[in-house]
Design a protein that fits this description.
Blueprint (H helix, E strand, L loop, with lengths): L13 E8 L4 E2 L2 E2 L1 E11 L6 E12 L2 E10 L7 H6 L4 E6 L7 E8 L8
Antiparallel strand pairs: 1-4, 1-8, 2-3, 4-5, 5-6, 6-7, 7-8
């Protein structure tokens, strides 16, 4: 019997965010690209979906400094973001900035490597 991987296996994993909306998004990583690490995961159960927090190096969007984004499923068919990333498949997500920033991006998230080993 296969042991299921848990959400915590992704904490610290590097990810690439390919921003599709707005289409002219540019960061220090290039057109439509952001890189970060998964810093937290919240699972709302089978019918509620998941949220991933992605820590970023300093980024300014619309005049607001952003150091993390919250990723939620863009479509219900891909609501299990954790499973997709554990299986090394991309997922379509909506990225939300900190409250009050007004930052909303549509993107694909892809895992780049394993999580950092525990210290």
């Amino acid at each position: 019997m296969e042991t299921p991987a848990t959400c915590s296996a992704l904490i610290g994993a590097p990810v690439l965010l390919l921003v599709a909306e707005p289409w002219d998004f540019i960061s220090t990583y290039g057109r439509g690209r952001l890189q970060g690490q998964i810093s937290n995961i919240r699972d709302f159960g089978p019918i509620g979906g998941q949220e991933l927090w992605v820590s970023l190096s300093s980024l300014i969007i619309g005049g607001h400094p952003i150091d993390s984004l919250r990723a939620t499923p863009l479509r219900m068919v891909e609501s299990d973001i954790v499973r997709r990333l554990l299986d090394r498949r991309p997922a379509a997500v909506r990225l939300l900035g900190p409250e009050g920033s007004g930052v909303r991006l549509a993107a694909a998230i892809r895992r780049l490597g394993p999580a950092r080993p525990s210290s």
